[in-house]
């Protein structure tokens, strides 16, 4: 058979579990940083929606200006294919923002303007001049950048790049074909982005929107707008005082939770574990209550555990003391039997008898007497073992118990009175053992009359057992319930009768007490009511 030790399964300590929970709670705000991209994306789409609205208003004004100059021979751009033309019956044709920062919509910075292949038509230049005041007033409020382009992609209005071409830019090229297009571009030159860029991709980007201007299903120009979306880190910096206060609040709250856990769980648990170790080393002071329990449940657990440990310790002491007494009590008759048997054997083996017939008879009588004492002691031990067993829904009527008692001592004067019709929470057999031992002791101490008086004392039944026999001396009153204590050892007393009585009463939740009296002996029994 292998003696290889079994590897103990790893289990986290209570402190580690609590620390992990607290660390997770404290880290929740930090984990929220990784969800900034979702918020950035929402800010970008909000910016695109605003640019769409502003561009659409300018496109309507631009289209009206172009329509007014159709009679002057203004030249329109590309014609929309039939499938791309808007339905005249549609009352609403919304353009929904669709830029996605989480996708692949992020482009490099916007290419620079190029020289125009041909100057803009003077009619478009005139339209640009008319729209420029509107553009400037709009920029004051929206902070957006505006470029108004003719059908060839040449800038005809704006703060910069007027007269230059933007037709090579991807979103403008799509708009010159009659399709709305937007792009998300990096504002800075091509270089490695800063480390914080990995948390928020919304840092350093620009939203560009190219809105085509349509007149008679032909492209008359493009409203090219751009703006930087609101940045979450700018918002955090502006509100840094509040966020620092919130972080300190989280730290303080976590520390407070940790202190509560420590005081209510960790400290009492460690103290209880320490008490268990001390109890294992035999320290009797470890049975005292804990200094701090923390919670009601842990208080119940600790008190129950320490109570159980103290009871087991007392039980262990009782067994050790009982074993020592039992060894001593058995040693005397066994030694006497062995000595008598050796002398008888020696006399039988010698050629001339060394013992007379009378001496042999005395030795045999001694052996029989000691054997009878051992048999009585064995019977008492069995009764004691049964007395200390747990009761199992037992009950019996006092009147029936008293009748059984009087039948065992028919020649003795036993008087009973009181509530004998009540039932007690003890079997008739064990109740008879209790009363039989008391009556037998009284008889052996010269009692002539024995009286039993029962009375209700809810939730128990009190019975006074008195006799007129020899009183118990003051020196022996504190020892009469000790196992093997007897004043009749020379007449066969085992000293276990009252110990059995007390064990039976205690195991059933009752008690027995020796009451003071001037004559005879008085015991007070408290039986549990059935």
Describe this structure in words.
- Strand 3 and strand 4 form a beta hairpin.
- Helix 1 (14-31) runs antiparallel to helix 6 and helix 8 packs parallel to helix 11.
- The protein has helices spanning 14-31, 36-68, 122-142, 170-175, 232-238, 240-280, 296-349, 357-387, 398-408, 428-444, 497-507; strands spanning 106-107, 114-115, 145-149, 155-158, 164-165, 181-186, 205-215, 218-227, 396-397, 413-418, 423-424, 449-457, 460-467, 511-515, 521-528.
- Mean pLDDT is 81; it is low at 189-202.
- Helix content is 47%, strand content 15%.
- The chain has a 6-stranded mixed sheet.
- It contains 11 helices and 15 strands.
- The chain is an alpha+beta fold.
Quick one: biggest sheet? 6 strands, mixed
Overall 3D form: rod-shaped
The SSE order reads HHEEHEEEHEEEHHHHEHEEHEEHEE
Radius of gyration over all CA atoms, rounded: 53 Å
Distance N to C terminus: 54 Å
Percent helix range = 40-55%
Would you identify the regions where 5 or more consecutive residues have pLDDT less than 50? 189-202
Structure classification: alpha+beta
Put simply, the count of helices is: 11
Strands of the biggest beta sheet: in what spatial order? 1-6-7-8-3-4
Strand runs, count: 15
Structure keywords:
single chain; 530 residues; alpha+beta; 5-stranded mixed beta sheet
Write the layout of secondary structure elements.
Elements: H1 14-31, H2 36-68, E1 106-107, E2 114-115, H3 122-142, E3 145-149, E4 155-158, E5 164-165, H4 170-175, E6 181-186, E7 205-215, E8 218-227, H5 232-238, H6 240-280, H7 296-349, H8 357-387, E9 396-397, H9 398-408, E10 413-418, E11 423-424, H10 428-444, E12 449-457, E13 460-467, H11 497-507, E14 511-515, E15 521-528
Helix pairs in contact: 1-6, 2-3, 6-7, 7-8, 8-11, 9-10, 10-11
């Amino acid at each position: 058979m292998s003696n290889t030790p079994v590897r103990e399964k790893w289990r986290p300590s209570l402190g580690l579990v609590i620390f992990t929970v607290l660390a997770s709670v404290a880290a929740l705000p930090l984990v929220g940083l990784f969800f900034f991209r979702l918020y950035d994306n929402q800010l970008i789409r909000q910016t695109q929606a605003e640019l769409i609205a502003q561009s659409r208003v300018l496109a309507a004004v631009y289209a009206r200006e172009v329509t007014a100059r159709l009679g002057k021979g203004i030249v329109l751009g590309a014609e929309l294919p039939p499938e791309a033309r808007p339905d005249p019956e549609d009352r609403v044709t919304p353009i929904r923002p669709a830029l996605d920062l989480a996708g692949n919509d992020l482009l490099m910075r916007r290419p620079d303007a190029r020289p125009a292949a041909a100057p803009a038509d003077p009619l478009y230049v005139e339209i640009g001049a008319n729209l420029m005041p509107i553009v400037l007033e709009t920029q004051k409020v929206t902070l957006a950048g505006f470029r108004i382009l003719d059908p060839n992609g040449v800038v005809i209005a704006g703060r910069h790049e007027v007269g230059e071409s933007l037709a090579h830019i991807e979103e403008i090229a799509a708009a010159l074909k009659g399709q709305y297009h937007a792009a998300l571009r990096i504002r800075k030159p091509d270089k490695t982005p800063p480390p914080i860029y990995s948390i928020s991709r919304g840092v350093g980007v620009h939203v560009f929107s190219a809105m085509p201007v349509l007149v008679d299903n032909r492209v008359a120009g493009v409203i090219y707008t751009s703006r930087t979306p609101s940045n979450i880190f700018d918002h955090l910096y502006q509100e840094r005082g509040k966020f620092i206060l919130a972080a300190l609040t989280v730290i303080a709250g976590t520390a407070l939770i940790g202190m509560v856990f420590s005081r209510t769980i960790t400290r009492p648990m460690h103290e209880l574990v320490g008490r268990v170790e001390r109890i294992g080393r035999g320290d009797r002071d470890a049975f005292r209550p804990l200094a701090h329990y923390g919670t009601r449940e842990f208080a119940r657990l600790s008190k129950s555990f320490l109570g159980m440990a103290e009871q087991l310790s007392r039980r262990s002491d009782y067994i050790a003391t009982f074993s020592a007494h039992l060894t001593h009590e058995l040693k005397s008759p066994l030694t006497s039997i062995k000595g008598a048997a050796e002398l008888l054997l020696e006399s039988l083996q010698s050629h001339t008898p060394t013992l007379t017939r009378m001496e042999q008879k005395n030795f045999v009588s001694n052996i029989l007497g000691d054997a009878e004492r051992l048999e009585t002691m064995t019977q008492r031990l069995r009764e004691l073992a049964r007395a200390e067993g747990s009761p199992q829904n037992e009950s019996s009527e006092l009147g029936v118990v008293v009748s059984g008692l009087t039948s065992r001592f028919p020649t003795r004067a036993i008087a009973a009175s009181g509530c004998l019709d009540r039932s007690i929470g003890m079997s008739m057999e064990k109740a008879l053992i209790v009363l039989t031992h008391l009556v037998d002791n009284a008889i052996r101490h010269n009692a002539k009359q024995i009286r039993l008086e029962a009375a209700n004392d809810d939730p128990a039944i009190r019975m006074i057992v008195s006799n007129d026999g020899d009183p118990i001396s003051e020196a022996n009153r504190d020892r009469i319930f000790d196992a093997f204590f007897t004043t009749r050892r020379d007449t066969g007393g085992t000293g276990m009768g009252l110990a059995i009585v007390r064990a039976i009463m205690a195991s059933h939740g009752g008690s027995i007490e020796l009451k003071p009296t001037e004559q005879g002996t008085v015991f007070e029994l408290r039986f549990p009511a059935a």
